[in-house]
Amino acid sequence: MIEIVISIFILLGGAFSVLGSIGIIRFPDVYGRLHAATKSATLGVICVMIGTFLFFLVIEGEFIGKLLLTILFVFLTAPVAGFMISKSAYNVGVKLWDKSIQDDLAKEMKRAERKTKQRS
Question: Which residues, other chains included, contact 86 with Cβ-Cβ below 8 Å and sequence gap of 6+?
Answer without folding.
Answer: 30, 31, 34, 35
